[in-house]
């Protein structure tokens, strides 16, 4: 079994994390609750929960809505948000007990399980259902087709990383051989691909936000395709905890999931402009117009689920992608690595 613990998502989302640093304590960044907690939660001492997120990104807007709108406080949770800056670090924090809950790519749980972890990490709530990266060209291509990449140089991602695996999966689904039909440069650090592209390297580049929007705003590139739309409903990021923590703290997991569902409900019922205004305090280094542009792009491609239920079909697609990339030797059981109990209750 290959020792690729937690490598897939970390490099991909590290670029996104440059948008803003994570808060060490959400009490310093969040607004006061905008609705009165229930009598039941007022009678209880808030439960301290440490959440380690893989990166701090507008891609995860519903979570920040839940923070800014005070939904965790309503559920009796005193949340501390820590940025792991990589799935490997996030998973390590969860396994070691430094963090109670992790937020990262769900492929990380597959790797740890496949390597024989006993108290393995279980996914209990899915946040994003689309990949978050985009294909950027040097000129506008309103009639772009994936065949247009043949014979060209594309700035891609690290081999074995989720963005690169999704990209190659799309190519194969469109009858394109990633090895022979085009050239993919995988030697540039993921956080530097946008800069390299703006300096003249490559004909196309695969970018997360804010890289894609930055290239467009500078007139140095144009988004011509969404990998999220063309790869299907991939469980790109999910919330997870050790099985032992879930067994010992079901009320905490339920309250946490309830708060997230309220955030999901908000983004489903509000405009990108309203969502951007709510999460703006989470990204003090980014102007509201840019936040709105990025939220709109993710909103339009149906990035966020209406509920947090991690469906088996999405889990199977994820394993298809890992197998296609040669990163998974044996499939792992959905029922071991996913529980829908808490998300189903929250959805009601």
Fill in the keyword field for this structure:
single chain; 348 residues; alpha/beta; D-Maltodextrin-Binding Protein, domain 2; 2 domains; 5-stranded mixed sheet; 42% helix; globular; disordered N terminus
Topology of helices and strands:
Blueprint: H1 8-17, H2 39-42, E1 47-53, H3 61-68, H4 71-74, E2 77-83, H5 87-96, E3 101-104, H6 107-114, E4 121-128, E5 133-137, E6 153-155, H7 162-173, E7 183-185, H8 193-198, E8 204-208, H9 211-217, E9 222-226, H10 227-231, E10 237-242, H11 243-248, H12 250-269, H13 272-279, H14 288-300, H15 312-324, H16 334-337, H17 341-347
Parallel strand pairs: 1-2, 1-3, 6-7, 6-8
Antiparallel strand pairs: 3-10, 4-10, 5-8, 5-9
Task: Walk me through the structure.
The chain has 348 residues and is α/β, with parallel strands linked by helices. 42% of the residues lie in helices and 15% in strands. It has 2 domains: 8-130 and 234-347, 3-Layer(aba) Sandwich (D-Maltodextrin-Binding Protein, domain 2), CATH 3.40.190.10; 133-231, 3-Layer(aba) Sandwich (D-Maltodextrin-Binding Protein, domain 2), CATH 3.40.190.10. A 5-stranded mixed β-sheet has the order 2-1-3-10-4, with helices on both faces. Strands 7-6-8-5-9 form a 5-stranded mixed β-sheet. Helix 3 (61-68) packs across helix 12 and helix 3 (61-68) crosses helix 13. The longest helix is centred in the last third of the chain and has 20 residues, at 250-269. The relative contact order is 0.19.
């Amino acid at each position: 079994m290959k020792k690729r613990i937690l490598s897939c998502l970390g490099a991909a989302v590290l670029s996104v994390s440059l948008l803003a640093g994570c808060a060490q304590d959400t009490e310093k960044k969040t607004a006061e609750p905008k609705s009165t907690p229930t009598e039941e939660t007022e009678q209880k001492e808030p439960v301290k929960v440490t959440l380690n997120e893989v990166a701090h990104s507008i891609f995860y807007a519903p979570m920040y809505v839940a923070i800014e709108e005070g939904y965790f406080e309503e559920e009796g949770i005193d949340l501390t948000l820590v940025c792991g800056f990589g799935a490997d670090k996030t998973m390590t924090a969860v396994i070691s007990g430094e963090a109670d809950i992790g937020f990262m790519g769900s492929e990380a749980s597959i790797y740890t399980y496949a390597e024989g972890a006993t108290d393995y990490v279980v996914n209990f709530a899915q946040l994003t259902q689309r990949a978050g990266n985009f294909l950027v060209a040097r000129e506008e291509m309103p009639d772009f087709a994936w065949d247009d990449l043949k014979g060209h140089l594309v700035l891609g991602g690290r081999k074995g990383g989720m963005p690169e695996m999704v990209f190659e999966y799309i190519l194969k689904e469109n009858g394109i051989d990633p090895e022979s039909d085009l050239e993919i440069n995988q030697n540039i650090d993921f956080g530097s691909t946008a800069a390299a592209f703006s300096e003249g390297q490559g004909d196309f580049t695969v970018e997360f936000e804010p890289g894609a929007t930055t290239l467009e705003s500078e007139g140095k590139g144009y988004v011509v395709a969404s990998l999220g739309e063309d790869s299907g409903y991939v469980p790109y990021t999910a919330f997870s905890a050790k099985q032992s923590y879930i067994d010992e703290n079901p009320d905490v997991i339920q309250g946490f999931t309830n708060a997230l569902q309220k955030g999901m409900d908000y983004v489903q019922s509000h405009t990108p402009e309203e969502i951007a205004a709510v999460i703006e305090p989470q990204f003090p280094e980014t102007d509201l117009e840019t936040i709105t542009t990025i939220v709109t792009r993710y909103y339009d491609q149906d990035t966020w689920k209406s509920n947090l239920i991690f469906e088996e079909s999405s889990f199977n697609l994820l394993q298809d992608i890992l197998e296609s990339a040669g990163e998974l030797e044996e499939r792992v059981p959905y029922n071991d690595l996913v529980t829908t109990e808490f998300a189903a209750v929250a959805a009601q």
